[in-house]
Inverse folding.
């Protein structure tokens, strides 16, 4: 599927290098169309067959006016000829009728085959594009999702993709059929009578000019329409995601107004598109009928002067009637092409995004032995233009040990959690696991070794078991129960009517915040990863349950390297080392006993959370190991 994209299949992008590969070539709509055609040519045999059958359909289509012309001439002869001649003519007319029937049948048959093949190609192409797009989204990094709204990505993946696919279905083969019909017809008409052929095709330059203008205007309108539709999807997605906030603040009216504005904008652009198309098509149709009248007037003069027969005039007129349908489709072809150009640009923009880490793509799998995680003078910035979110961070933590990270919001705690599984890459320094720079190992093996349990839990609309076993769908019932019991959620699950088979609604609706977090913890540890990072993972768990959770996690964590990020000091005060982060720097580090007495930020936090409980401050062992 990667053939559809210009970049090779790789790993996740570097925050800086993941940028839109700007394509000046796309400023010219033809570049998009030619790219679509190139992809469609992967189905070259079917495409060739569709074109051949379309050609045959055109040949039989053009034969019809000729047969009709001959019939009119023959019928005319009946009025003048003698009885013997008349009998021959009647037989000739019967033969012509048979040929007409055969031509019409064959035309229909070839048109059907050509139509079927075109639709098949369009659907196959749509499927390829969809897979390539989804595949690309799976490979993009967090920075990409930070920058592009998921509503926008959905619009591109659904509406824009349909716009590009629709071009293959509606425009490509129709355009080919029109060109073939007009060319074969023109050849035939010119072989009959050049002045009449010129009059018959006199509307073609007008058609070309109007169609070109219409295409340009429609392109602009489609681009604006797709953008408006993306905004609509974004508004709707945010509204549904944040439905509780919306209802809690009784903001439905405000939301409806927001949606209305976006909807009206989309309607205005759609209207503009319809007007452009209607004006364009009316002009083309007027030109067409004007040419028809001219053929009739000029043709009758030519018949009177004896240059052509009545049958030949009929042939010209019938040919024009046959052209009527494809000419009417010019509007659809132009509209479809214009949509494909604007949609194709938006779709290819994503498909062409550079995949990162080309320079340092992990070559070998990570095999964790001693479970030593080291940060060596790490700095990181989310954006080259922004100040560093982390600066000079160094620490080391081994298997069986726990590192606690605490500090004010925005200090950089979650950023540390994001760097270890390489959601983002460090800007300076390095991170190693058992001495291997994490950029040198494959992402897959790294992510198998490292598990991040986040505060914000995402649960799939699936059973409890599937949600917990998400990292390892083959996990046995024992693993499931062990992980759930360690995460203090097993008892709750067994009380549910369906047990582990109970279906959890979208995003875990029906579960409390604490229960969702405990399910997420179970998911994080089911595969027994070597390194587990809890990023405020139990913030919503009540204090009594958290007390048990701390104990079971500590017991289960003997062979794990653990990092606990928490606002709640009770969650991490048992850690072997605690680092205090403030504005991206480590401002204090040590064990709880030292830090709580040091009089710094940690002491302040400690006092704020535990009040002036002297006895606790002096001997906190009691609840560290509780
Ligand atoms: P903490 O977890 O300590 O609250 P974070 O690690 O989330 O802090 O954030 C550290 C800094 O990085 C903050 O200044 C925050 O604004 C910034 N930051 C966090 N996430 C992103 C992001 N996705 N894009 C840009 N800046 C970010």
């Amino acid at each position: 599927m990667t053939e559809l994209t210009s970049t090779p299949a790789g790993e996740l992008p570097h925050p800086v290098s993941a940028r839109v590969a700007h394509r000046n070539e796309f400023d010219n709509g033809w570049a998009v169309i030619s790219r679509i055609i190139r992809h469609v040519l992967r189905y070259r045999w079917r495409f060739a067959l569709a074109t051949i059958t379309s050609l045959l359909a055109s040949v039989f289509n053009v034969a019809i006016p000729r047969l009709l012309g001959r019939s009119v001439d023959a019928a005319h002869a009946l009025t003048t000829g003698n009885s013997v001649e008349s009998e021959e003519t009647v037989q000739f007319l019967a033969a012509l009728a048979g040929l007409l029937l055969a031509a019409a049948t064959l035309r229909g048959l070839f048109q059907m085959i050509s139509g079927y093949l075109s639709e098949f190609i369009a659907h196959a192409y749509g499927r390829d594009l969809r897979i390539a797009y989804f595949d690309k989204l799976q490979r993009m990094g967090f920075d990409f999702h930070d920058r592009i709204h998921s509503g926008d990505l959905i619009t591109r993946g659904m509406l824009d993709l349909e716009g590009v696919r629709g071009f293959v279905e509606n425009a490509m083969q129709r355009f080919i059929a029109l060109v073939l019909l007009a060319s074969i017809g023109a050849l035939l008409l010119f072989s009959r009578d050049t002045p009449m052929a010129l009059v018959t095709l006199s509307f073609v330059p007008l058609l070309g000019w109007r169609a070109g203008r219409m295409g340009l205007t429609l392109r602009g309108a489609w681009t604006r329409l797709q953008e408006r539709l993306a905004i609509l999807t974004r508004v709707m997605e945010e509204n549904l995601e944040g439905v509780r906030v919306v209802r809690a603040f009784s903001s439905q009216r405000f939301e409806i107004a927001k949606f209305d504005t976006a909807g009206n904008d989309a309607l205005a652009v759609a209207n503009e598109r319809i007007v452009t198309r209607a004006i364009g098509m009316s002009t083309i149709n007027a030109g067409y009928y004007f040419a028809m009248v001219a053929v009739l007037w000029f043709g009758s003069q030519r018949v009177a002067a004896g240059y052509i027969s009545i049958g030949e005039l009929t042939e010209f007129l019938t040919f024009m009637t046959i052209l009527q349908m494809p000419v009417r489709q010019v509007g659809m072809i132009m509209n479809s092409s214009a949509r494909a150009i604007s949609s194709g640009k938006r779709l290819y923009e994503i498909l062409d995004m550079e995949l990162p880490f080309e320079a340092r793509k992990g070559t070998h799998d990570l095999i964790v032995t001693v479970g030593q995680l080291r940060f060596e003078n790490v700095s990181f910035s989310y954006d080259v233009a922004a100040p560093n979110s982390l600066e000079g961070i160094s620490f080391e933590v081994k298997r069986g040990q726990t590192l606690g990270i605490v500090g004010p919001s925005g200090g950089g705690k979650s950023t540390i959690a994001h760097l270890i599984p390489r959601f983002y890459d460090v800007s300076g320094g390095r991170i190693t696991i058992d001495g291997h720079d994490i950029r040198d190992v494959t992402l897959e093996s790294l992510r198998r070794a490292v598990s991040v349990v986040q505060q914000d839990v995402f649960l799939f609309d699936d059973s409890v078991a599937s949600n917990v076993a998400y990292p390892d769908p083959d996990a046995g019932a024992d693993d499931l129960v062990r992980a759930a019991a360690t995460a203090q959620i097993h008892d709750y699950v067994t009380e549910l009517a369906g047990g582990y088979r109970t279906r959890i609604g979208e995003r875990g609706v029906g579960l409390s915040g604490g229960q969702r977090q405990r399910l997420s913890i179970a998911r994080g540890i089911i595969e027994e990863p070597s390194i587990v990072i809890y990023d405020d993972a139990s913030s919503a768990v009540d204090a009594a349950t958290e007390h048990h959770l701390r104990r079971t996690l500590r017991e289960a964590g003997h062979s794990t390297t653990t990092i606990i990020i928490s606002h709640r000091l009770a969650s991490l005060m048992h850690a072997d080392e605690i680092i205090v982060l403030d504005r991206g720097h480590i401002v204090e580090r040590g064990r709880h006993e030292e830090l709580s007495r040091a009089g710094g930020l940690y002491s302040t936090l400690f006092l704020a959370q535990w009040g002036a409980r002297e006895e606790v401050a002096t001997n906190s062992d009691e609840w560290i190991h509780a």
Residues 146, 382, 389, 407, 409-415 surround adenosine-5'-diphosphate (CB under 6 Å).
